[in-house]
Amino acid sequence: MTQQNVVVSETKSGINAAITMTQKPPAPPAGYIPIPRRRILKNLEINAGQRINTCIDSMRASSPTHVKSTPSFAEEYNSWILRHPSALDMFEQIKDASKGKQIVMFLDYDGTLSPIVDDPDRAFMSESMRKTVRKLARCFPTAIVTGRCIDKVYNFIRLAELYYAGSHGMDIKGPTKESKYNKNNKAEALLFQPAREFVPMINEVYQKLVEKTKSTPGVIVENHKFCASVHFRCVDEKRWIELAQQVKSVLKEYPKLHLTHGRKVLEIRPSIKWDKGKALEFLLETLGFANCNDVFPVYIGDDKTDEDAFKKLSDRGQGFGILVSKFPKETTASYSLQEPNEVMEFLQRLVVWKKVTPRSRSRV
Ligand SMILES: O=P(O)(O)OC[C@H]1O[C@H](O[C@H]2O[C@H](CO)[C@@H](O)[C@H](O)[C@H]2O)[C@H](O)[C@@H](O)[C@@H]1O
Predict the structure, then answer these.
(1) Is-contact 56 248, C-beta < 8 A?
(2) 223 lines ligand 1 (CB under 6 A)
(3) Are 82 and 88 in contact (CB under 8 A)?
(4) What is the CA radius of gyration of the chain?
(5) Which residues of the chain does CATH 3.30.70.1020 include?
(6) CB-based burial label for 49 (10 Å; 0-12, 13-18, 19+)
(7) Could you report the predicted ipTM of this complex, rounded to two decimals?
(8) How far is CA 316 from CA 69, 91, 137, 265, in A?
(9) What is the largest CA-CA distance in the chain?
């Protein structure tokens, strides 16, 4: 396998934070009114408290408790579905919009191809979903874009003909099985890891997180090689503050890492300018669609981290995003599907359409 250049850029905030902690404060300017040290410390405590509260708010937001039968929910849902109609209901329009263009499929895993379950190690994909994705990959170039590390997601999917972008796009690999889209196994050489230098740090943080959170019942910590996850789906809500504090106390030693939130999961990620949106763009370039007008990328995902990819498509003005959700959520995706079963139906319809569409009407 060949390896492409490693591009790593760090956010200023992480570096600044490190400098602030080690440097002596500069001399006060003329007219400077000294603030008592006690008040500064108090303010720092308030800021730290606010940060924990923000973290707790995000943890709650990742697990909304909607009462579907209330009139206000119905009203909110009806207005949302008008803005993000079902991709199944809009299938004819989607077909029309993509005619003559090369569809490229991007699929998130958890909550999109497999239903959300309590134990991340048991998030199995159904056999019918696997068959559908296999057929899909015969019709269109298809990539899995996931927060999980490639090895874990591959164990669930087991389809060698797909592109994989694991660890939130920080680990990109091409198909290992020859297909229509990677003749002569050219794509097999593809390996792109923009956060490679963070692997030892993530390993260290993972071990510290396991140690720090072991007193919190229900917590699961996962090592995804280029990032780590702390699951709180099975942690009693009364202990969320304690858990957020444990995680933050580990992270404060690592200014080059930052925290994001997924579905009942805290994600620890390197502070580099890379996300699922960048991974999508990279894959389109790899497939030869860098400056192409006749490409039609479709990204299906259910989580906050998928928004980076939805936004990328919206910025490019190409294709569209589909959010998998039963509940109204703020999103840049154009369409929606309620659950993995609907995703499967949508993919099956694409396959059937592709098979009956004369060659002249679609690009491949
Ligand atoms: O990008 P994704 O493929 O959606 O991965 C995001 C996270 O997915 C997994 O966690 C989620 O699914 C679990 C199994 O259903 C569920 O228990 C958890 O609450 C969800 O957040 C995965 O375990 C994480 O590491 C991924 O970051």
Answers:
(1) no
(2) no
(3) no
(4) 22
(5) 38-67+197-273
(6) exposed
(7) 0.98
(8) 38, 22, 23, 30
(9) 79
- Residues 93-132: tens digit of each pLDDT: 999 999 999 999 999 999 999 999 999 999 999 999 999 9
Check pocket membership of 275 for ligand 1, CB cut-off 6 A: no
* Distance (Å) from CA 114 to ligand 1 centroid: 10
Top-ranked range on mean pLDDT: pick from 14-23, 69-78, 133-142, 184-193: 133-142
Confidence (pLDDT) at 47? 59
The domain at 85-194+275-357 falls in which architecture?
A: 3-Layer(aba) Sandwich (3.40)
78 CA → ligand 1 middle, Å: 28
- Regarding the domain delimited by 38-67+197-273, which CATH topology (the fold level of the hierarchy) does it fall under? Alpha-Beta Plaits (3.30.70)
Q: How far is the CA of 144 from the centre of ligand 1 (A)?
A: 14
Contacts of 207 (CB under 8 A, 6+ apart): none
The boundaries of every CATH 3.40.50.1000 domain in the chain are 85-194+275-357
Among the atoms of ligand 1, which is closest to the Cα of residue 233?
19
Assess contact for 4 and 192: CB atoms under 8 A: yes
CA 333/CA 54 separation, integer angstroms: 25
Q: Which pLDDT does position 9 carry in this prediction?
A: 28
For the chain, give percent helix, strand, coil, nearest 5.
45, 15, 40
Is the minimum distance from the CB of 146 to ligand 1 under 6 angstroms? Answer: yes
User: Residue 274 region, left (φ>0) first, then alpha (ψ -120 to 50), else beta?
Assistant: beta
226 neighbors 198 (Cβ within 8 angstroms): yes
The region that residue 218 occupies, defined by phi over 0 for left and psi between -120 and 50 for alpha, beta otherwise, is left
pLDDT confidence band for 27 (50 / 70 / 90): very low
For residues 57-92, b (16+ Cβ closer than 10 Å) or e, as one string? ebbeebeeeeeeeeeeeeeeeeebeeebeebbebbe
Q: 115: CA distance to ligand 1 center in Å?
A: 10
Q: What integer best gives the mean pLDDT of the chain?
A: 85
